[in-house]
Design goal:
- By secondary structure, the protein is an alpha+beta fold.
- The chain has 19 helices and 24 strands.
- 33% of the residues lie in helices and 23% in strands.
- The strands form four sheets. An eight-stranded antiparallel beta sheet has the order 20-19-16-17-18-21-23-22. A seven-stranded mixed beta sheet has the order 1-2-3-4-5-7-6.
Length: 628
């Protein structure tokens, strides 16, 4: 890896020669180069003022490239970015560019202008820079003849993301099934296969993982692909640690049948390695097993507001204190028996009202059913409807009718967390994609929420966070809302764990830091593949989707790859872009290409499921491999 350092005044002549060699690499003739020379010259008295940084080979000290960051806030210019011709394409320019963007953010610049040689335009597009508008702003100056102007908005890592893990990498523990299992809800699949798939999102539990710990085996090239796009370095992956994970190679050793956290503890060398990194441990959610792994006290009452009835009571107490005029709390009635639930449902149906039936716990909409009066009549009565639902006590809740305009967002969510000192940090609000009662994904980004909803959503979410903090909870949480037709928000539940929208926030924070502020990020839980893919085809599909999205100005990230090897195959994905139009186009491309690839293999050979990484079968049983 190259070493970056500030240039010295005595290097001006040598750096000028490097710049001219790099410019000439593109085939310009001598008269043209002679005309460029005065503009490209670096004078010794300018080196410090132009904030020139050089990249050098750490082994031999050879200078391989340089970049300058010029101007005064709020507008900076990337005056120079040149590398030696023999190292073009080896990542030197990328390192210099990312460093310039980081320095610009730290110095308070809000815009970075780049007047690029046409031959370098593809590089800047790949780095996330956007073509500047044709009409320049006052003070920007004209674009020099023959150059292409780009613009980027430098941004430091979001303050909430810095507070989440201290601004550095963390150990991500994908204990989704372990978290769900502690509630023993009848709506949750006993085998928890879907939860093991969802554990793949552990790659994104913070903007930058140091290690990822997973219950099942994952395709060995997956983290490398994601890490390349998000520029992670040195990520360690430990997969296949519990039975029933994401692939056929999930572990069957001493940890079989245990939770992921205890499976890690059973591997003393692995537990010691993860604990010895000095990095924070980040789980999907708090459990007794994770408390043992992390060496923290286990206080199960921290999670009491994961219960939908307890959360409803909390919402009511907050509203009773006043200060949230645009928040509407739906009525909710516990029904400890099916007979009681049938009576409540029948009474509401006779009044022509729709009803929401909920279990105390559930994820992704499991255990939540919307029942209209027409459905009750068509089924032959309330008891007939209830016979089709999972056993166990139910909550009967008032249904809140949504906006008349179907284009208006219906399902919103607030995400934030309580840090170790009890302070509440706001990540923001997101728009969820919900079909019926089933969560399918979420979108975050500037202005995604209706303007009227932003302030009341953030205020109420913050109030919930303060109550959770006072109750002793420490960790991530969200509050889900539905909108009504009168410009009000109805809180429906709280989740005391990471969530799909939280993953989108993490990726947005990383991309904004790497590529410039303003990303929209959409997480899509399930992209149908149509057929199980043979070995290698999934990686080829991801390559196609990555290139296709890049052509649209978007970023494609495979978020849940292991579902591709299920009997009914699917893929969880993240797409990101600077505009909603590009985001929508990228999602459409992903869905279309995924079905097309599936159709090509429909009826053909079965999929070769992901094999364990070679390091996962080491004789010490620890598992894991290092990727760049």
């Amino acid at each position: 890896m190259v070493k970056l350092r500030a240039a010295g005044a005595g290097e001006a002549e040598a750096l000028t020669a490097l710049v001219l060699r790099s410019k000439a690499h593109w085939g310009y003739d001598e008269p043209f180069m002679a005309s460029c020379a005065p503009e490209l010259r670096i004078r010794s008295g300018e080196v410090a003022g132009r904030r020139i940084v050089v990249a050098e080979d750490p082994s031999g000290g050879r200078v391989l490239g340089l970049a300058s960051l010029e101007g005064a806030p709020p507008v900076a210019r990337l005056g120079l970015l040149f590398v030696e011709p023999d190292v073009i394409g080896r990542g030197v320019g990328r390192r210099l560019y990312r460093d310039a963007l980081r320095r610009a953010a730290e110095l308070g610049f809000r815009r970075l202008l780049i007047d690029s040689d046409p031959h370098a335009a593809g590089f800047y597009r790949a780095m996330g820079a956007r073509h500047a508008p044709a009409a320049t702003r006052p003070g920007d100056g004209d674009v020099p003849a023959g150059l292409v102007r780009f613009e980027v908005a430098p941004a430091p890592l979001a303050p909430w993301a810095r507070a989440w893990t201290g601004g550095g990498p963390a150990v991500h523990v994908g204990n989704v099934a372990e978290y769900n299992a502690q509630f023993a809800d009848a709506t949750l699949d006993r085998g928890q296969r879907a939860a093991h798939h969802y554990a793949c999102l552990a790659a994104f539990y913070s903007p930058w993982p140091g290690a990822v710990v997973l219950p099942g085996a994952v395709p060995p090239g997956w983290i490398e692909r994601v890490g390349r796009l998000l520029e992670w370095e040195g990520v360690e992956v430990y997969d296949g640690l519990t039975e029933g994970g994401c692939g056929p190679a999930a572990g069957s050793g001493p940890s079989a049948g245990t939770g992921l956290s205890d499976a890690v503890r059973a591997r003393t060398a692995l537990a010691g390695r993860l604990g010895g990194t000095g990095l924070p441990l980040v789980p999907w959610g708090l459990t007794a097993g994770f408390a043992r792994l992390a060496g923290r006290p286990w206080r199960p009452r921290e999670l009491r507001y994961e219960s939908k009835s307890a959360a409803h009571g909390l919402f009511g107490r907050i509203l009773a204190a006043g200060g949230h005029p645009r928040i509407l709390l739906p009525g909710q009635w516990p029904a400890p028996t099916r007979r009681a639930a049938a009576r409540l449902l029948a009474a509401r149906a006779r009044a022509g009202a729709s009803t929401v039936l909920k279990s105390e716990h559930g994820v992704g909409g499991s255990g939540t059913t919307v029942v209209s009066a027409e459905r009750v009549r068509a089924a032959g009565g309330a008891r007939a409807v209830l016979r089709g639902l999972p056993r166990g006590p139910l909550l009967v809740e008032e249904y809140v009718a949504g906006p008349a305009d179907p284009r208006e967002p219906r399902d919103l969510t607030y995400d934030g967390f309580v840090d170790g000192a009890g302070r509440v940090h706001e990540a923001g609000g997101a728009v969820m994609d919900v079909a019926g009662a089933g969560y399918r994904g979420a979108t975050v980004g500037p202005g995604v929420m209706p303007a009227w909803a932003r302030e009341p959503l953030l205020a109420f979410g913050g109030a919930v966070g303060r109550e959770l903090s006072a109750a002793g909870y420490r960790g991530w949480f969200d509050v889900d809302f539905v909108t009504d037709g009168a410009g009000r928000l109805a809180p429906t539940e709280a989740n005391l764990r990471l969530t799909g929208p939280s993953i989108a926030f993490m990726v947005a924070a990383r991309l904004d830091e790497l590529r410039g502020a303003g990303h929209f990020v959409r997480i899509v839980d399930r992209v149908e593949l149509g057929a199980r893919l043979p070995g290698g085809a999934l990686d080829e599909l991801c390559e196609v989707l990555e290139r296709g999205c890049a052509e649209l100005g978007a970023v494609f990230l495979p978020a849940i790859p292991t579902g591709a090897f299920d009997p009914v195959p699917w893929l969880g994905v993240l797409v990101a872009a600077y505009s909603r139009e590009a985001l929508v186009a990228a999602e459409a491309l992903v869905r279309t290409e995924a079905l097309a690839v599936g159709a090509a293999f429909a009826g053909g050979q079965g999929a070769q499921e992901p094999s364990r990484s070679s390091a996962s079968s080491k004789s010490n049983g620890e598992g894991g491999f290092r990727v760049r």
